[in-house]
Amino acid sequence: MLELLALTYVMAAAGGILVGAISLPLAFSRSTLFALTMTHSVLGGAILGIYLNSALGLGVPVPITATMVSLILSVLAAELSEKIFSEDVAIALTVAISTTITIIFGYLTIQVSSTGLSEVWFYVAGTSAIATVGDLIKMATAAIIVAPLMHLISRELKYISFDKDGAAAMGLNVRVYRYLFFSLTAFATSTLASTLGVLATHVLLAVPGAVAMRFGKRGSLTASYTIAVALALIGYFTAQLLEIPPSGGIGLISGLVIMGLILGHERR
Amino acid sequence: MSVKIEVHKVSYSYGLKAALEEASFELDSPFFCVVMGPNGAGKTTLLKLMLGLLKPMRGYIRIMGHDPLKESSVIRRLVGYVPQVVNIDHHVPITVEEVVAMGALSKDIPPRIMSRKIRRRVEEVLEVVGLEDSSCLFTELSGGQRQRALIAKALIGEPKLLLLDEPYSMLDFDMRCEIAGLLYRLYGEEGIDVFLVAHELSPCIHLDPMVILLNKRVYAIGKASEVLKLENLKKAYPGLTEVPAGFILGEDHA
Predict the structure, then answer these.
(1) Does residue B253 lie in a domain region?
(2) For chain B, which terminal residue's Cβ has fewer other Cβ atoms within 10 angstroms, N or C?
(3) Are A183 and A29 in contact (CB under 8 A)?
(4) For residue B147, is it within any domain?
(5) ipTM for the predicted complex
């Protein structure tokens, strides 16, 4: 039991590292709403994957289908906002498409599979508060891929957010950096959602970056990592204590952090 | 003397809305040139075309004989660009050092690591523009200091030409004069040609710069004292009946 607990907390810490790397760039590039699109897309993609596996027996890992759908819809949102609509309208349209996929394939999945509903539920609320070796491997692999790559492009992302035209004038390929960032975010979101659920993933992606921007020294990445790891660890502990899914624990702790920040801000 | 900037019958439009219609002019080095015109005259579009960020629909542009579209890497080496402060996202937590260093780092290939040499160069250009603390956040600076930091970013690559988009916007009159003085010093002492777009000339009128009157087309080009005449201004600013005080002495002086 102790080993399982250790495994769970190591996995939570890896998830925190994954979130810490993404959350701050999301906050300073004003892309937190974009992350919301991705969590919706991941849910739609996961349900599509579950349906295709159940109905057609494809055997494609659900996180792969979820990541692919998330990537496609993220690119769609980026293209729509760059060429046709304002960003909020592009996001709303993309969320509408992913919600439609979720509803249609969620309904169809229930028709063809008796276990489909529980699989779908895992993507909404997360798996159990005790992690498996598979969860740990998945999360650690994602953290090992995403965190160094994010560090590699963080300076450019920051500058592009600061001055898009200036960055383009200096020869930075704004579109390539943006799509790389969105791809890494889609991958991270899909990995996190398969364990924590889409609801907790969005909260977890939003809070550390926002708090680091507001209170961290110069919006530091260290603050983002620290807050993300702490939220994941305390969230898992709370989930085990209250015997609820990890998404519930993380959501609860994130909610308390936000309330604490609001109260702290009021007192100032 | 070689032609440093050549804009030949350049047209550009955003959808159906024309931004530039067969705009043409030539500038020989050395020059300190101010492009003036009303809102929507195509001033910023002209800068973007000169930087190769937009492609002319008709006509062509040459900067020191180079095509900004086909020889963008050469243009980036020769030209320093100072964006409009209002187009910058002040919400991003970026230090002055990071802003200025990006002017040099962008010329490297990733990963762009801030070496000791680049840090030293950042300190040097900050000294040129009169800024001291490179560790503070860009958002902690005053309007004039922000403009200086952006000029420092453009200077770090040792450009031959500075392109500036509304460098006087959001500044009070004294600050505008300080920035104009700094730019004129860069022009006079460092031999850097200056090409800026602005709504008014008052901060640098005493420098008698070159002026281009633009409103989709180029209506006049020459020394300020020759160009800023009512007959020319009426063409670029339809509805104008007299030369506004701000064009010559600055409304703040009036």
Answers:
(1) no
(2) N
(3) no
(4) yes
(5) 0.85
Burial group, residue A202, by CB count within 10 angstroms (0-12, 13-18, 19+)? buried
Question: Is the N-terminal amide bond of A245 cis, ω within 30° of 0?
Answer: no
Size of interface A-B (CB pairs under 8 A): 69
SS3 B69: coil
Q: Which of B102, B107, B112, B137 to mutate to test the interface with A (most CBs of A within 10 A)?
A: B102
Rounded Cα distance, B188 and B86, in Å:
28
Q: pTM surpassing 0.90?
A: no
For residue B221, list its beta bridge partners: B212
CATH of domain A2-258: 1.10.3470.10
Chain B residues inside the 8 Å CB shell of A171: 72-73, 76, 106-107
- What φ, ψ does residue B8 adopt, rounded to 5°? -120, 110
Residues 6 or more apart in contact with residue B55 via CB below 8 angstroms: B49, B69
pLDDT tens-digit series, residues B163-201: 999 998 888 888 888 898 999 999 999 999 999 998 877
My answer on whether omega of the bond before B244 falls inside 30° of 0, hence cis, is: no
Q: Can you tell me the distance from the alpha carbon of A227 to that of B29, in angstroms, rounded to the nearest whole number?
A: 55
pLDDT digits (tens, 9 = 90+) for B55-102: 999 999 999 999 999 999 899 999 999 998 888 888 888 999 999 998
Biggest alpha carbon–alpha carbon distance for chain A: 59
Domain locations in chain A? 2-258
